[in-house]
Amino acid sequence: DMKNGLLEEGEATLRMKCTLEEGKQDPVAYRIKYAPHHRTGDTWCIYPTYDFTHCLCDSIENITHSLCTKEFQTRRSSYYWLCNVLDLYCPVQWEYGRLNVNYTVVSKRKIAKLIDEGIVADWDDPRLFTLTALRRRGFPSVAINNFCAQMGVTGAQSTVDPTVLEAAVRDVLNLTAPRHMVVLEPLRVTILNFDGKIKDFEVCDYPMEIEKGKHRVAFDDVIYIEASDFRE
């Protein structure tokens, strides 16, 4: 009846008959949901739950370690139970604390809601801290890896300021990005008491590693400064 659409949502569920180690009984395996699937359309009106599919997908795909945040720790017993009762290869589920970032959201569910409501454009919107957004902003992958290594993995939930990630980016760019000067809004300035002799200065391409090269900058009676730096 569930499969054939003869019951309403919430009227019936298919459960796994067991008592788990924390005392939870008969976790739900399938429930009724009258919603189109992005691949199968309206073919099905019953859908499996996380408890039923997570461990089976991991086992079929030969996942060695299933890494989850701490809120999934209570699902570990059902994960192991279903694999064992079906005599399937059972991966290891391992939980870690969520890393939150100040002034933004990192939850996929919350980001998806922001996209659906048109508040941000997509997953690569530069205001987000998704990997695609960071790549669009030009964050080097090495810097992101260094940031993750610096934060470490712990069971405790933690919150970090975005400036910590930005500092990791600067550390990488200091060693990989040659220095160039640019004036975005140029304002011409003439030095009236200049002695008339053009001066030549050497500037390091990489301030942290001066042996990697230098370039020369000429200085004379006409220079250009940022318009925002000028005040009457």
Automatic annotation (TrEMBL):
Q: What class of enzyme is it?
A: ligase
Q: Which UniProt keywords apply?
A: Aminoacyl-tRNA synthetase, ATP-binding, Ligase, Nucleotide-binding, Protein biosynthesis
Q: Which domain of life is it from?
A: Eukaryota
Any one GO CC term of the record: aminoacyl-tRNA synthetase multienzyme complex
Gene Ontology BP term (one): glutaminyl-tRNA aminoacylation
This entry's Enzyme Commission designation comes to 6.1.1.18
What's one Pfam family here?
tRNA-synt_1c_C
Matching entries from InterPro entries are given as: Gln/Glu-tRNA_Ligase, Glu/Gln-tRNA-synth_Ib_cat-dom, Glu/Gln-tRNA-synth_Ib_codon-bd, Rbsml_bL25/Gln-tRNA_synth_N, Ribosomal_bL25/Gln-tRNA_synth, Rossmann-like_a/b/a_fold
GO MF terms here are: ATP binding; glutamine-tRNA ligase activity
Residues in domain Glutamyl/glutaminyl-tRNA synthetase class Ib catalytic? 1-174
Its family?
Belongs to the class-I aminoacyl-tRNA synthetase family.
Full protein name: glutamine--tRNA ligase
Q: Which organism is it from?
A: Bracon brevicornis
| Lineage of the organism | Eukaryota, Metazoa, Ecdysozoa, Arthropoda, Hexapoda
